[in-house]
Every structure is written in C-alpha cells, then in structure tokens.
Design brief:
Helix content is 39%, strand content 16%. The protein is of the alpha/beta class. It has 2 domains: 212 residues, Aspartate Aminotransferase, domain 2; 108 residues, Alpha-Beta Complex (Aspartate Aminotransferase, domain 1). Helix 2 runs parallel beside helix 3 and helix 2 crosses helix 6.
C-alpha cells in the first residue's frame, strides 16, 4: 500500500485542503497515474463492461481502459462539465455503465470546472445505478483565484468515488509517485491488487517526500509555484492576444497548468501542431483527444515548464505556423 507515514501525510493534506473524507488506510501509493488507473481497471471492471469518458479526454486514458477490455463510450463536455443527462442517453448498446472517468476540478483538455449541481447529480446517478466514479484530480493544487475547490470525493455519501492524485505534476515529472484513495469497503481488495502489480513504489522517494511534508516544504512549494505559474499564464495570454488576435482565441483559467487556444473554424489543428512542432513548439491538437466531432479545432497550450521570455518566442513561432496553415501571405515572417 505504500510507506505508512507518507500515506498519513497525504490523508491529512487531503482532508484539510481538498475537503475529503479519508483515512491513511484508504490511501495507496502508486508509480504514476497510469498505474493508478490500471489498478482501478483491474479491480472494478470485467472485460466487456462499459466505461464512459469525458470527451475530449486524454488519449492515454482511453488506451488504458480499452486495454483492460472495457467498452469505452465518449460523453460530450460543455462549459459546466460532464452532463448527467448526456451520460444517461449515451449510446452504450443497452449495457449499464460500470464506471465514469472525470476530471472535475480542471477538465483535460478543455479546462472547464464541473459545477456543483452537476457534481451532485452525478453522485446521485452513481448511487442509483451502482456505477463507480474515477476522479482524476491531476493539477488542482494550482489555483490562482480563491481557495482550492473541494474534491468530488468529499461529497460522496455512498462510497462510489475513487480519487487519483499525483506528485509528478505538483513537484516534477521524474518523480513517479502518485496516490489512489479508495472507498473503505474496497481497501482489502485493492491491497491484494496492488500486491499483484509488484512491491510498493520506490521507498527512498517516499521517505524523502514524507520529510518534505513534515518540514513544511510542500506547502511553501505550492505557494511559490502558484505565483510562478500564474505569471506564466498571464504572459502566455498577453502574448497570444498581441501576436495572434483573430487567429487564436484564448481565455484565462483559475486553475491548472494549461489553457485552451481555439482556432478559427476550418483550420486543421493537427496541421498547425505539426508545423509548430517543426519550429520547436509543442501544442497538442484538441482533435487528438476527441472521439466525438468538435465544433472547431484547438490547441492545448501548456505553460508550466516555460519561462516568460521563452513563452513569447514560442508564441512568435506559433504565429508563423498559423500563417503557413492559413496561407495568408505572412508565412515568411520569422523571429
């Protein structure tokens, strides 16, 4: 299950900051979010059962669930998050939905936050149908306006939410430590499943991370990085509005490590991505994450690992790529 002092630190943090109801015995340390989701798939899904995903959603999530034998059904997301009405009418071939995967605090990649009414409706639906909810809370620690939103798990009264968090985005990607919080009734089942995946995650990193929590460094790190990432988001938005007005629509977001850039109708986001990548700028296309038709193309603009001067240069290079795709005669400009 993982190093107990770290699990105790995580449980205390989640209760205080994320409004969750959990004990250390419910916390499982994993070697990354992919392993967490693979463990969930192994423990609560049988081959052929139906899973509903937000659409768009990360391609790797779709792949993990498909590899587990699940029938994956996309459900469209709007500005308020996943709709229970759409979930109830999803084309599942008459099969009941066994599990729903969501990113309610900061939907990936659209960036919307699920409203409270939608959260309550989803929990009520799960309680009535017996379905499980996987809450992927991948970057909720970074919030630039107000306090962090309470997790969906904290509203769960029946024990249907399995909560996933990670230190790879909160601290640094090479730290392959994540955690899974399971309902108390599933604790023994998941303990056996975690053992079947191999021994616990590397112990030394868990011990050091526990000290990082205990000595107050984790809280200080989050405060410091919130300021840095907010500055980088502001720089990105200002640069796009100055250099790409009318060519890329972008709005600030109160949380997370990326924003969506919306392209004009008819512009191929995959082609823009390819040309930008050739110039050293990686802006993944929205269409790579979508199974349902999208009203227009978009680009996922991550800013966390890029300093403000590099962000401005990257936007200039993206402008060149957009010019080439649109064929507007300005493709010769470069920086």
């Amino acid at each position: 299950m993982g190093y107990l002092p770290l699990r105790q630190a995580i449980a205390g943090y989640l209760r205080t900051v994320r409004g969750m109801t959990c004990e250390p015995e419910q916390v499982i340390i994993t070697s990354g979010m992919h392993q967490s989701l693979a463990l969930v798939s192994k423990m609560v899904l049988a081959p052929g059962e139906t899973v509903c995903l937000e659409d768009p959603s990360p391609a790797v999530v779709q792949q993990i669930l498909t590899d587990a034998g699940a029938v994956v059904v996309p459900v469209a997301v709007d500005q308020h998050g996943l709709s229970v009405e759409r979930l109830a009418t999803a084309e599942t071939g008459g099969q009941p939905v066994r599990l729903v995967y969501i990113t309610p605090s900061h939907q990936y990649p659209l960036g919307v936050t699920m409203s409270l009414s939608r959260r309550l409706a989803l929990l009520d639906w799960a309680a009535r149908t017996g379905a499980w909810i996987v809450e992927d809370d991948y970057d909720s620690e970074y919030r630039y306006a107000g306090r962090p939103l309470a997790a969906l798990q904290g509203l769960d009264q029946v024990g249907c939410v399995l909560y996933m968090g990670t230190f790879s985005k909160v601290l640094f990607p090479a730290l392959r430590l994540s955690y899974l919080v399971v309902p108390a009734a599933l604790r023994d089942l998941f303990a056996r499943g975690r053992a079947a995946l191999g021994r616990q995650a590397p112990l030394m990193e868990q011990v050091v991370l526990t000290a990082f929590f205990a000595e107050g460094h984790f809280a200080r790190h989050l405060r410091r990085m919130n300021g840095i990432y907010q500055e980088r988001q502001v720089t990105l938005i200002e640069s796009v509005r100055q250099r790409l007005a009318g060519e890329l629509e972008i709005k600030p977001t109160a949380t997370g490590l990326h924003v969506m850039g919306w392209l004009p109708p008819g512009v191929d986001d995959r082609r823009v991505w390819q040309l930008a990548l050739a110039r050293g700028v990686d802006v993944p296309p929205l269409s790579a994450h979508a199974r349902l038709p999208q009203p227009r193309g978009g680009l996922v603009l991550g800013y966390a690992c890029v300093r403000p001067p590099e962000i401005r240069v990257g936007v200039d290079q993206l402008a060149v790529a957009l010019d080439a795709v649109r064929g507007n005669g300005r493709g010769e400009r470069s920086v």
